[in-house]
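General statements about sequence and structure are easier to judge against a single worked case. Part of our work consisted of pairing the sequence of a single chain with a tokenised description of its backbone. The amino acid sequence and the backbone structure tokens for this protein are reproduced below.

***
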Amino acid sequence: HGQADQHRLTAGSRQREVLDRYAGAAASEALAAYQVVYTRRQEVADELAELVRTGPDTGAEIERLRYATERVAVLAPDPDEDDELAERIGRLSHADALVQAASVAYAAMGGEESDSSTAGGYASLAAAAHALAAVAGHDPVLADLSARAEELLILAADLQGDLAGYREQVAADPAALARAQERVAALADAGRAYCPQDPTAAGLVAWSRGAAARLAALEGAEARQGALRETVRQLDRDVAERAAALHDMRAAAASRLAEQVRRELAGLAMPTARLTVQVAEAAPGMHGADEVAILFAAHDGTAERPLARAASGGELSRVMLALEVVLAGADPVPTMVFDEVDAGVGGEAAVEIGVRLARLARHHQVLVVTHLPQVAAFADLHVRVRKDAGGDVTASDVTVLDEDERVVELARMLGGLAGSESAQEHARELLARAAPERAPGTTVARR
């Protein structure tokens, strides 16, 4: 604890921490429980705010996706449809030529429409196969040729039948051709509109799947907003309940803390000082829904005001020390270091600070940096630090003083006259005054 700590004590956050330390483990547990709920409430509220922020854009996107996915659903594209449509359109576009070619071929194979110029193809092949078959048994080479002729005859018969069937299946159908062409145009139009990077039927199918997933997510976000609002309302109730429990603990501890600090201030030469720890309701935050303020008045006839505006430097030092003495019983810290905690203090007030530090040392190890002999006299062990800047390197000499050396050092601290008999006598009086409060082995005062 140093002078900077005294100034930090004027901040509301630091005063709240002091009160929570005094309130003990129960308040710490209540604060931790509150912070869990409050943090969760903030997370949910942030998520809801983000959904609300993007709400207008989300609504427009939902409408666009609904229209587009419904349009594609009506089309019901098939990934392989492009090739099938191209084949169908090619056949229907040339139906007359295809039927004519099949008819000519059929006639050439000896069909019922054959004439003298085309007839005989199949008949000639049959005659050739018959002739070879009659003598095939006499020569293996001829037998092979006969077998090939039979195969050709079989293939020719199959071809003749297929040509006849093809002629019946393929016919000019302008309506079917128009439907196929309209289908191609509709798929191409949807592809250019929704997946221009791949405007095929397969690309349209892939886009439709992704759009449906996105639409489901966006529609889920609308429902999510309602669920989040209800969660925020529930968490607000939980936050309020836990904040109220924490407030009650703080308010109860505040009155006890103020009373104990007032008693300590009376012992620090401030018998008429008044101090109040105020716990006012505030908007919920990470540390509860309380605003903690220490109000102080150093004398009768003055109104209590916030500590930062009501206390001088010396008064602030004593308030901080009084708080530390009171908190000592609730604070498990084993060692305390005070760096000029007595700044701005002198006379009898300095003696009383020495008393309080000595009493604090009964339960803690206390190390004090001080320029005041009234404070140093209460230490059980006095260590003098002397700076030597005479050589190339500045060095500090640390010496543990015995009783005689301590008298000389206190006399020097009193008036700068270490060899003055009157100053040394005053130093002995200070040590005698402090003797009842000292407990050997617990306190070091360093000069």
About this structure: The chain has 16 helices and eight strands. The CA atoms of residues 129 and 151 lie 9 Å apart. The first strand starts at residue 274 and ends at 285. The beta strands are 274-285, 288-297, 305-306, 335-339, 365-369, 381-388, 395-400, 443-446.
